[in-house]
Membrane protein
Amino acid sequence: MEGVGWIMTIIIGAIAGWIAEQIMKSDMGLMMNIILGIVGALVMNGILKALDVIPPGGWIWQCVVAVAGACLLIFLWRMIAGRRAA
């Protein structure tokens, strides 16, 4: 996450992971929420940079980006896990 420190990264990751968990109606624990939020933010920031879209700075925008990225990761995981089960 850009523009925030390590502690704020963990807090934003936890919040973003929890929000994504609620949106996607999945059941995960606190550690997985933190991981999803942080990795989701990294993935979504990478996608946005590849598209030459730079979101405004600040922790609120990073939280929005992290939620979108975490939802994307949950969606992709469900697609992969669904194919494996079939």
Notes: Residues 6-85 form one domain.
